[in-house]
Specification:
This is TolC family protein. The protein is an alpha+beta fold and 436 residues long. The protein folds into 2 domains: 2-38 and 112-281 and 322-430, Up-down Bundle (Outer membrane efflux proteins (OEP)); 65-111 and 282-316, Outer membrane efflux proteins (OEP). The protein is 65% helix and 17% strand. The chain has 9 helices and 6 strands. It has helices at residues 2-21, 28-38, 40-54, 115-181, 187-221, 244-254, 256-276, 324-391, 396-430, and strands spanning 24-26, 66-83, 89-111, 230-232, 282-296, 303-316. Strands 2-3-5-6 form a 4-stranded antiparallel sheet, with no helix packed on it. It has a two-stranded parallel ribbon with strand order 1-4. A hairpin with a 6-residue loop joins β5 (282-296) and β6. α7 (256-276) packs antiparallel against α8. It is elongated, with a radius of gyration of 40 Å.
């Protein structure tokens, strides 16, 4: 009988392999690659990071001069009357007057209290902040892809377990029918076996629905057609070598949330430098070349034109602004203090999350070993029960109990692997160390 069950399991396995061969085999590495290329939130984060990088230019902070070309052309038609001091007057209707001015002006701030230098450094920090946000988004989405992928693997295991129990239930119905035919069992035993078979088929149908919905969700994370069909690998490999101290050290260096808080403090410090720059004078150089021309139908001058180069500088210094400078500096210092508090708070939250997740991880590793043993025991118990049921030495209730125990043991073992994998993914995500 053991050989028979083994043969049935082998046939089911070969059937699953043959069915999967007609589908795309999606590995976890392929899934992560597709997500990095297609996921909408990752694309947006990449663009935001590029925007921050694009903004880091010397021109954006005022290091370079600005040149402006301008042209002004005014025309008017008027009815004019002029009265001179000697009493004579001149009247002209529809008198035309026009003026044309054009030229180029140049302005350059050569000193602003070192504000432009602080602003340039701040833009660099904002670029780093954009990179940290991109990393956070990538880690989060890759974590979601991993979770969804191994959820599919787990549900695939559950499908296999339910397929196995249906085969056993069908065998039980046949045995009950044979026993009823030869008068060794009642009709009630046949009906009970049929009811249990129908129950197993309902559970399998529900599990297939859940499995298909999980595929749709993974396709959503991969930003592709939700109807794309595929198969996943059957193996869940859990990294059981993680060490809490190592994870905490990595998190201090790589966790994007903590990294963002550190960058925010640096940005606040540079903001204080910009505020203090207002204590110093601002010096601007100006120059330009202009041409102007005007024509008038009435007046002492009918035409006038000029052209030439101009240059100069202006300097300004804030002497008193109602103590706003002092207030702004105080606010900037408080923002730096808040940034430091945020770093300490994020560090504590991170250590708490790592410690909690690591304890869950250790528990799940122990559960894997325990559930693996339970599955082996349940399998042995089912084999013995099936032999006894075949010769009629146990009740159908005992057989059904052994059958459900075996199925539940397989499901729990699969769940233990899945939960342990989720714990591993969560720890690596917190440490900023998911491999992709």
């Amino acid at each position: 009988m053991k050989t028979k069950i083994t043969l049935i399991s082998l046939v089911l396995f070969l059937f699953c392999v043959a069915k999967s061969s007609a589908q795309e085999i999606l590995t976890i590495e392929d899934a992560m690659k597709i997500a990095l290329e297609n996921n909408f939130e990752i694309k947006i984060a990449k663009n935001n990071s590029t925007i921050s990088e694009t903004n880091v230019t010397v021109g954006n902070v005022g290091f370079l001069p600005t040149a402006t070309a301008n042209i002004v052309d005014n025309n008017n038609v008027t009815n004019s009357t002029q009265v001179r001091q000697d009493g004579t007057s001149t009247t002209l209707n529809n008198a035309k007057n026009n003026s044309l001015t054009y030229g180029v002006s140049l302005g350059w701030t050569v000193f602003d209290g070192m504000r432009m230098f602080a602003r340039y450094d701040q833009l660099k920090e904002l670029q780093k902040l954009g990179d940290a946000e991109l990393k956070r988004t990538v880690l989060m989405k890759i974590g979601q892809v991993n979770s969804a992928y191994y959820d599919l693997v787990q549900q695939q295991h559950q499908l296999s377990a339910l397929d196995t129990t249906i085969v056993i239930s069908k065998q039980r119905v046949q045995l009950a029918q044979n026993r009823f035919t030869i008068g060794k069992a009642s009709k009630l035993e046949v009906l009970n076996a049929q009811v249990d078979l129908n129950t197993d088929q309902v559970a399998l149908l529900r599990q297939k629905e859940s499995y298909k919905n999980a595929k749709i969700l993974l396709n959503q994370y991969l930003a592709r057609d939700p109807q794309i069909d595929f198969a996943v690998t059957d193996l869940v490999t859990v990294d059981n070598k993680l060490v809490l101290i190592d994870l905490m050290d990595l998190a201090k260096k790589q966790n994007p949330a903590l990294e963002s808080q550190i960058i925010n403090k640096r940005i606040a410090e540079l903001q204080l430098k910009q505020v203090k720059a207002s204590r110093y004078p601002t010096i601007n150089l100006t120059s330009g070349y202009n041409f102007s021309e005007s024509q008038s139908s009435l007046g002492f001058t009918s035409e006038n034109s000029s052209k030439g180069f101009n240059y100069g500088f202006n300097a300004s210094l804030n002497l008193f602004d109602g103590l706003n400078q002092h207030r702004n500096e105080k606010v900037a210092k408080l923002q730096i203090e808040n940034s430091q508090i945020a770093i300490e708070q994020q560090s504590m939250i991170l250590n708490t999350q790592l410690s909690t997740a690591f304890q869950t991880y250790l528990t799940n590793l122990e559960l894997i070993d325990l559930e693996e043993d339970n599955q082996a025991i349940a399998k042995q118990n089912l084999d013995i029960t099936l032999d006894k049921f075949r010769i009629g030495t146990i009740t159908t209730l005992d057989f059904r109990t052994a059958q459900l125990n075996y199925v539940n043991a397989k499901v729990r073992y699969s769940n233990a692997q899945y939960e342990a994998k989720l714990s591993e993914i969560a720890l690596k995500e917190l440490a900023g160390n998911i491999n992709f």
